């Protein structure tokens, strides 16, 4: 195996390593210059996590030579071999980099044309900042953007009269990064407004492989079973300028080594743009974006099964929420992971939607009917202040009029409380853990259809739904209650808990009758007969759920139309643009964060985008709860997803805060 001497220290500790291709050899780039790329060069980057796992990136500037890009490809393959074939490989092109790549450089990336001491950088982007070197001339400026005039000892941030506050904020971060890293803190940083330029700027700016490829499936969502471990596959997403090459763990070595070149040839054969990104993914290192092209992607040892709350009318799954709520106030990250703001012992009020709000008798709390919509107002105290959550629960069999009325009444209730409550839209079968905890030890019972209104159906509708039950819904980690016309069963999976068995007693009492207890592996024939026959079901004994990295998006119409852009890398509180609506995807739940300065179009358009985002997800996450939060009223279930959340951050203007860092 050929190994370059630079690889001796590659991947030895977490972090980013960068090499530039110079004279067809590797030259390390100092950490202070990470994020600066010469457009005539090619680069090799390695990002190592603490696991460890590896990302290898080959970056090609617009003007780099064929020899340099070829050398970068060779070194990328050698580095992959050196690290045992485990890295995820990326082919990055100037101005079309992946979000993974952009996330390494939170202050932005800089494209440099030459190595002179003076340069003019044009900044573009709201989430991923790109600073491109342009001609040092007034013809390069425009009113809508920010520019960095870098004169060496003095760095000027020039702001056009039409650029917005968030762009100014990001430009300031880049200016600080240049001063602190490239100049080791020795340069002076200045803020300049259009029309107020000092003489220094005015004077300067007036100067001048071979793999056979065959189609497997025409369109997503794909099935994970299509990926044979003996093969390599190309997932074609060229319409969005990226493709993926998946390497099966048992594919022959020649195919695995040729993965990147096969991707490049595929792009040429398809006639795709030369800006198309390529990601090479070894089995087990699939990215979130790749997984979302598959229906219900399963990682190794992941458990699956019915949704968290259970339904009368199919198989009743008993799912308790074992959780130490006393740790919530001191551990916001745990609160976010579990979706629990407290232990559920606050005040609960429930109304059924019938054109107006109709109070539900407290004795019926915990029972929900698929033909109805409900408003649940939960009030609790946190940090000495009263907080509120409005859950809008929508049954799968309610009418469009009821859906519309539930949305209207939610807004009306929110307005009556000064706009302070957190709003959570819940679709039947996707109930979050905190909602299920409100009924104090009693399971939440969902009737698959019918209504609780006077003269409406009750659980009789569940009897008609019994024919829909299937053994494939069972899960070895859970307890199920099955009612047939002739018998009542409590089935306990091998991995089920005692708490779930206790909850099953409540369900049996509600259904009435004497239950037969059945253990997994000892089922009688009439049990399988009641389920329509024995079928395969989830038998993994692992209780560890798949961990999906949270993703943050900004919804903005600053360009004239409402667009959505992902925040690259590990996001922070400062990535929440106060003049936008932000979408946080934590996999089990969607949050919409409304900035105080967001405009009306963003506020009205973002909820539809969130709904479409979930319903169009190929992984099948339809119906997730969508929680709307206002700036300054964030609950711990939201703030826990951000490192070092600062509750008083917005008491001071973010621009004033960052301008204070200009002075050293």
Structure description:
The protein is of the alpha/beta class. It has 16 helices and 32 strands. The strands form five sheets. It has a ten-stranded mixed sheet with strand order 19-18-21-22-23-32-31-30-28-29, with helices on one face. An eight-stranded mixed sheet has the order 2-1-4-5-6-15-14-13, with helices on one face. The longest helix is centred in the first third of the chain and has 18 residues, at 165-182. The protein is globular. The two termini are 51 Å apart. Mean pLDDT is 82; it is low at 205-210, 303-330, 457-468 and 541-546.
Break the fold down into its secondary structure elements and pairings:
Blueprint (H helix, E strand, L loop, with lengths): L14 E8 L2 E4 L7 E3 L3 E7 L5 E7 L5 H17 L5 E6 L5 H4 L6 E4 L6 E6 L5 E5 L11 E5 L3 E6 L5 H18 L5 E6 L5 H7 L26 E6 L4 E6 L5 H5 L1 H12 L6 E6 L5 H4 L18 E3 L3 E3 L13 H7 L8 E8 L1 E4 L7 E3 L3 E10 L2 E10 L5 H17 L5 E6 L5 H4 L8 E3 L12 H5 L14 E5 L4 E5 L5 H14 L4 E4 L5 H6 L20 E6 L6 E4 L14 E5 L4 E5 L5 H16 L10 E5 L5 H4 L14 H6 L5
Parallel strand pairs: 3-7, 5-6, 7-9, 11-12, 14-15, 16-24, 20-24, 22-23, 26-27, 31-32
Antiparallel strand pairs: 1-2, 1-4, 4-5, 6-15, 8-9, 8-10, 10-11, 13-14, 17-25, 18-19, 18-21, 21-22, 23-32, 25-26, 28-29, 28-30, 30-31
Rg, rounded, reads 28 Å
Mean pLDDT: 82
Q: How widely separated are the two ends?
A: 51 Å
What is the number of helical segments per DSSP (H or I, 4+ residues)? 16
Structure summary:
With 664 residues, the protein is of the alpha/beta class.
